[in-house]
Amino acid sequence: MNWFKLSAIVCVPVLLLAVGGAQNRNPGQRLTPSEIDSISPTGAGAGTSGVGGIQTRLLKGDPNKPGLYTIQLTVPANTRIEAHTHPDDRVATVISGTWQIGYGTAFDEKKLKALVPGSFYMEPPSVAHFARTGNTAVMVQITGYGPTGTTYVGKGQGK
Fold first, then answer.
1. Looking at residue 6, what is its pLDDT?
2. In what order do the strands lie in the sheet with 80-85?
3. Which of 7, 39, 130, 141 has a 20 to 30 A CA-CA distance from 109?
């Protein structure tokens, strides 16, 4: 038997097992709202504005590392988030509450748009945006491609 045939006989099954095993390690994730609620929240972390009181649940990936991630943020009532940017392209859905968001380099009440549950919005890379909540907490789910970060602009700088 020649070397090529022997290599194929040994290597192909090993390769197939390795690929099959890698696919089975994370075949998919399905989470109900109660299962998401059971994930211990952390404070405002990577991918958030960093404002105190925000709770973050990591649903997929790691926003600090290269790759796709999804975070769920709960932002307390009466919270104002000054203008800031993120380096990655992000999309978001409002899960609960009314999220008021606007685009620009300074917080501007006239530019806010109220988004109710089920609403969708985008946070393009390096595009400044700002937000606030009303009298109730808001939950948003954000998906991006890390690593992410937050840079405040204008008057909001350093918050």
1. 52
2. 113-115, 99-103, 129-133, 80-85, 151-152
3. 141
Cβ–Cβ < 8 Å for 110, 73? no
pLDDT of residue 47: 79
Rounded distance between C-alpha atoms, residue 126 and residue 34, angstroms: 34
DSSP letters of the chain?
--HHHHHHHHHHHHHHHHHHHHHHHS------HHHHHTSPPBSS-TTS---TT-EEEEEES-TTSSEEEEEEEEE-TT-EEEEEE-SS-EEEEEEES-EEEEESSS--GGG-EEE-TT-EEEE-TT--EEEEE-SS-EEEEEEEEES---EE-GGGTT-
Report CA-CA distances (Å) from 150 to 14, 93, 146.
44, 19, 12
For 81-139, the pLDDT digits (tens) are 999 999 999 999 999 999 999 999 999 999 999 999 999 999 999 999 999 999 999 99
C-alpha to C-alpha distance for 26 and 80, rounded to whole angstroms:
38
Question: What's the rounded Cα separation, in Å, for the pair 73 and 66?
Answer: 20
What does the pLDDT read at residue 28? Answer: 85
Better-scored residue on pLDDT, 122 or 44: 122
